[in-house]
Give the backbone structure.
Amino acid sequence: MKHLSRDMDRIKRRILSMGALVEGAVHRSMNALLCRDATLAGEVIAGDKRIDAEEVELEEECLKVLALHQPFAQDLRFIITVLKVNNDLERMGDLAVNIAERARFLSVRPELSVHVPVPEIAEKVRHMLRDALDCLVERDVTLARKVIDADDDVDDLHRETYGVLIDIMKAEPERVERASSLISSARNLERIADLATNIAEDVVFLVEGDVIRHGRA
Amino acid sequence: MKHLSRDMDRIKRRILSMGALVEGAVHRSMNALLCRDATLAGEVIAGDKRIDAEEVELEEECLKVLALHQPFAQDLRFIITVLKVNNDLERMGDLAVNIAERARFLSVRPELSVHVPVPEIAEKVRHMLRDALDCLVERDVTLARKVIDADDDVDDLHRETYGVLIDIMKAEPERVERASSLISSARNLERIADLATNIAEDVVFLVEGDVIRHGRA
């Protein structure tokens, strides 16, 4: 039993360090996009290998703990939640790579001067991701619900961005490719927010045993 | 032990029926897009509730079996794989809803006559999804590798589609919105193919204990 608690602590530490890696990748991909920094974009792309490797290792560790200790009740649920969160984080890493690829594409082209709330989306997504990880480790349902609510704001900002960029593409054909890349970046950010929301929903389920997934309008 | 084997059989049946539901949704969303059928699109959107409910129930059942029987080795790995596949299938259902929404949008607008290989992508994705489910239940690594290989074709076709549609948007501003909806549909299909590939990779891992995820170029 003592070994189980030691192993559970290690899993908790590892999912946090996985989260920190992914948070860094998301943050750097956004900076690469906003600052037109191809070098930074390249770092995000190269760094995804490590995130992938961490995901595989953490999953293996969870399986080992399940097989070795056959935990039940809360511990079992926690490990299953970590397996899901681990998977969500790895997907966020892939989305950060997508953003970095678009950032690299845009960095060598004329600046697309346009007023869209992409920096605001980026900022909100960053907070959501951090809060999602915190609420998992702290088992904080109030914080989890904050993350879930924030997703609606991101959806609104994303819709606004899409509308503005579609209008630009209609008006100025020479900006189609760049606007399309920015649409893609905004969508990838919005998907990162969705995954952070998934994590928060899983935390509510973990703590309250209450399925709120799919319950939102 | 007898109870475990009975419960494992039930899990196997349920993941297959979840797969069949999602396969149906993907297929109908594609038909709605290709045949400009808003009614069919509406059915896909309405039907997603059932997929969401099935996901939650199957996950609960897996957790119960884990807690009750504390299975190990192959059975434990199989249940963990089912949990992941279950999650992937539910995401595919969401992507089918996205496609259905675009289908509905396009169905009430003038036809966007354009030669892009979206029907070919749809056909390939359909086969990939079916094969991914078969290879899971049959533990068929050869079939799993076929799914993984097919993903490259889908990526090529998706890239081709994107290029053609970007050119159309540049040349004809009045087609920007419709072309953008078709880009989005093709991307959602490509993501369904990615998730089918995830499933196939998990099957290889389940059977061979070999991590091939993230190993692809």
